C-alpha cells in the first residue's frame, strides 16, 4: 500500500482532498485563528525541539544536518506515543501535514512525509 501523505503551508486554503489535516509545528501559526485552520489534530510532540528549531533557523544550507538531528529526535522515547499515532493516521487515510514555515521543502513536514512514506527510512 502506498501511503498518501502530502505537506503544505497551513495558510493555504483547505480542501476535501486533504484528508486528515495535522499541524506538525510546536508553536501555533502566527495570525491563524483556530477556527480557520480546519485541523483534525495538532501534534506538537512530533515537531522538532525548540533547541533544534532555533539552531536551524530555516537556513537551507543547514537542512541536511537539521534532517539528521530531527530524525534522531523522533526516535526519543518521550516522542514514541506521538510518532506512533502519526504513523497510525498515515496508514488509514489521506494525510496532509501542515506547517507555517515559508519554505516547506526544507521543513519538518517534508522530513516527516519522506520518513512516513518510507523514502527516508534507510537514513532514519
UniProtKB/TrEMBL annotation:
<dbReference type="InterPro" id="IPR052552">
    <property type="entry name" value="YeaO-like"/>
</dbReference>
<dbReference type="Pfam" id="PF22752">
    <property type="entry name" value="DUF488-N3i"/>
</dbReference>
<protein>
    <recommendedName>
        <fullName>DUF488 family protein</fullName>
    </recommendedName>
</protein>
Amino acid at each position: 500500500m502506498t501511503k498518501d501523505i502530502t505537506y503544505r503551508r497551513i495558510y493555504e486554503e483547505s480542501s476535501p482532498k486533504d484528508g486528515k489535516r495535522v499541524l506538525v509545528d510546536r508553536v501555533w501559526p502566527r495570525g491563524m485563528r483556530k477556527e480557520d485552520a480546519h485541523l483534525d489534530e495538532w501534534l506538537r510532540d512530533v515537531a522538532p525541539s525548540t533547541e533544534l528549531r532555533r539552531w536551524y533557523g530555516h537556513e537551507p544550507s543547514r537542512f541536511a544536518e537539521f534532517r539528521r538531528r530531527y530524525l534522531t529526535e523522533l526516535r526519543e522515547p518521550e516522542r514514541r506515543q506521538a510518532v506512533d499515532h502519526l504513523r497510525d493516521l498515515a496508514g488509514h487515510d489521506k494525510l496532509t501535514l501542515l506547517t507555517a514555515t515559508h519554505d516547506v521543502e526544507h521543513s519538518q513536514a517534508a522530513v516527516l512525509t519522506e520518513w512516513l512514506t518510507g523514502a527516508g527510512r534507510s537514513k532514519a
